[in-house]
Amino acid sequence: MKSSAVVLAAVLLAFAAAPAAEAKGCIKGAIVGGVAGHYAGHHGVLGAAAGCLYGRHHAKEQNRQQQGRQSRDQGKL
Predict the structure, then answer these.
(1) Beta carbons of 67 and 76 less than 8 angstroms apart
(2) For residue 51, which of 76, 26, 68 has the smallest C-alpha distance?
(3) Boundaries of every domain in the chain
(4) pTM
(5) Residue 48, class by beta-carbon neighbours within 10 Å (0-12 exposed, 13-18 middle, 19+ buried)?
(6) Residues lower than pLDDT 70 in the chain
(7) Which of 21, 46, 52, 77 ranks highest by number of CB atoms within 10 Å?
């Protein structure tokens, strides 16, 4: 129990000390993928990596669609 608290504290300190990054979609995808990977055969790290990649891809697609809508709306003015 004590070791899990130490690991949790280390992870929280690592996140607090890390500089802000442009990782839209990665964090949410990594959390979901890590949990899914853990329950699908103890492959949490692999699931987190795949979830991050998918989340980043999905965020880029949404950004492209939003930019396309904005450019069409500007053309109508």
Answers:
(1) no
(2) 26
(3) 21-76
(4) 0.60
(5) buried
(6) 1-4, 7-8, 11-22, 75-77
(7) 52
